[in-house]
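One thing: mind reviewing this one?
=====
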Amino acid sequence: MKLRIVTPLAVVVDEDGVLAVRAEDSSGSFGVLPGHADFLTSLTLSVVSWKRADATRLYCAVRRGAFSVNAGREVAIATREAVVGDLATLAGAVLARFHADLDVERSERVDSARLQLAAIRQIMRHMLTDGRRGGFS
């Protein structure tokens, strides 16, 4: 199989001769072997692993993304961020940083939603005040 992991800025992994790929989506961990049916899923923060023909296993931490299998011969992962490395480093430092980044993103989304709701309330308040004076203009 061919495995390709891409980010918006780079092709992180482009490898032929992959015997198996493991990843994780919201339903749990799963594996893909050559000949797998076409497949599409959304990945969580996880470490993707793959086995080469020489029996070595390689690892790449991904920050969510789209995982697809095409014709049982091509596995593609499109993600915001990917880091290739050894399992100990990826499982510790990199995934911890990815989780911290997710927490910051969630907080920023909440703050943005609060600002939008405050703006809508202010607009509604002005519209209601104008309506009491004899109409909208």
The longest helix spans residues 87-132. The chain has a mean pLDDT of 87. The longest strand covers residues 18-25. DSSP finds one helix and ten strands in the chain.
